[in-house]
Write a structure and sequence with these properties.
- It is a single chain.
- With 297 residues, the protein is an alpha/beta fold.
- The protein has two domains: 182 residues, NAD(P)-binding Rossmann-like Domain (Rossmann fold, 3-Layer(aba) Sandwich); 104 residues, UDP-galactose 4-epimerase, domain 1 (Alpha-Beta Complex).
- Helices cover 40% and strands 20% of the residues.
- It contains twelve helices and twelve strands.
- The chain has a seven-stranded parallel beta sheet with strand order 3-2-1-4-5-6-10, with helices on both faces.
- Helix 5 links the parallel strand 5 and strand 6.
- Helix 1 crosses helix 7 and helix 6 crosses helix 8.
- It is globular and about 55 Å long.
- It comes from Streptomyces tsukubensis.
- Pfam families: Epimerase (PF01370).
C-alpha cells in the first residue's frame, strides 16, 4: 500500500515509517522542514512538504494514498485550544478525501479522560465530542466517517511510549529530577500509568493499517499499570538521585506542566487489541528501559 503518514519524523512516526517500509509499503511522509524531508528521503520514503495547517497539502497526501496514518499534533501546551482546532481541521480534511474509498484511516489519540476509576477498555467510547472538546473531538469525528466509506481505526497510546531518545512525559520527569536534584512522585505515588515500547507501538500501527476492521479502537499498551512511584524510583536509581514524595500543592512548581498528567490515572487494558490483531509486545518494560539508561542523557 501507499501510506500517507503525518508526524512521520516524530517519536512514534519515525518508528512507524520504518515499520511500514520494512513491510514493503510505500510511505509518503509529511515534512515541515528540509531536515525532515531529507530524513525521510534517506529511509526511502517520499516527503510531502507541509504542516498541519496546510490543509490543501493534507488533502493531497490523503487523496494520493491507499491508507492514512495520522500521528501529528501541535502539542501546544500553552495554547491547547489551538492544538485542538488544528487537530479537528486536519482529521476532517483527510477524512473528506477518503470518503467512499474504504481506505484505512488510523487516527491517534491518548488515554487521558477516557474513563475514571478503572483501566480503560477498547470498548470505552471517548467522551470528547465536538470542536470544543479535547483534541477537537477528533476520535469521534473520524469514527463518524465510517458511514461514509472510510475504514477508520483509532490507536490510543499509553502515556509513556518509551525508548532511548524519547522526548515525551518521562523525559520531562527526568529533566525535573535533574533540575531539582531529586526524583519525585506525587503524594503516595499510587497513580497508575500504562506504557508501551516505541517499536511495539509501531508494529501495532502497521497491523491497524493492514488488518483492523472499521471502528476498531486499538490500545497501544504493553503494561497495563506502572505506578508513578515506580517510575520515580527507577529514574532516581538511573540518575543516582534521592527519591521523594512531592505534595499535590507543590507538584506544579516541581514538575512544570507535566504535573497534571503525572497526577492523572491513565491505566488501560489491551486484551482486545492483542486478541483481534495477534499483537504481542516484545520490547522492554518502562522500568527496564529507564534502568538501562534510556533516560540518563
Amino acid at each position: 500500500m501507499r501510506v500517507f503518514v503525518t508526524g512521520a519524523t516524530g517519536w512514534i512516526g519515525s518508528a512507524t515509517v520504518d515499520e511500514l517500509l520494512g513491510a514493503g509499503h510505500d510511505v509518503i511522509g509529511l515534512a515541515r522542514s528540509d531536515a525532515s524531508a531529507a530524513a525521510l528521503e534517506s529511509k526511502g520514503a517520499t516527503p510531502l512538504r507541509g504542516g498541519l495547517d496546510d490543509l490543501d497539502v493534507l488533502r493531497r497526501g490523503a487523496s494520493d494514498a491507499d491508507a492514512v496514518v495520522h500521528l501529528a499534533n501541535k502539542h501546544d501546551w500553552g495554547n491547547p485550544a489551538e492544538s485542538d482546532r488544528a487537530e479537528r481541521a486536519a482529521v476532517e480534511v483527510m477524512a473528506d478525501a477518503l470518503v467512499g474509498t474504504d481506505a484505512p484511516f488510523v487516527v491517534a489519540n491518548g488515554l487521558s479522560g477516557i474513563v475514571e476509576g478503572r483501566a480503560a477498555l477498547e470498548s470505552d467510547a471517548s467522551p470528547e465530542v465536538g470542536p470544543d472538546a479535547s483534541r477537537g473531538g477528533s476520535e469521534n469525528l473520524a469514527l463518524d466517517y465510517i458511514a461514509r466509506g472510510v475504514r477508520t481505526v483509532i490507536v490510543r497510546f499509553a502515556p509513556s511510549v518509551h525508548g532511548a531518545g524519547d522526548w515525551g512525559f518521562v523525559a520531562f520527569l527526568r529533566d525535573a529530577a535533574k533540575k531539582r536534584g531529586v526524583s519525585g512522585y506525587i503524594g503516595d505515588g499510587s497513580v497508575e500509568w500504562s506504557a508501551v515500547h516505541r517499536a511495539d507501538a509501531a508494529r501495532l500501527i502497521r497491523a491497524g493499517v493492514e488488518q483492523a476492521p472499521a471502528g476498531t479502537r486499538m490500545h497501544a499498551v504493553a503494561e497495563e499499570s506502572v505506578t508513578t512511584r515506580a517510575i520515580a524510583e527507577a529514574l532516581g536509581k538511573a540518575l543516582d538521585l534521592p527519591v521523594v514524595s512531592v505534595t499535590a500543592e507543590d507538584a506544579g512548581e516541581h514538575f512544570g506542566f507535566v504535573s497534571g498528567f503525572f497526577a492523572t490515572p491513565m491505566a488501560a487494558s489491551s486484551a482486545r487489541t492483542r486478541e483481534l490483531l495477534d499483537w504481542k509486545p516484545t520490547g522492554p518494560t518502562l522500568v527496564e528501559d529507564i534502568l538501562a539508561g534510556a533516560y540518563s542523557g
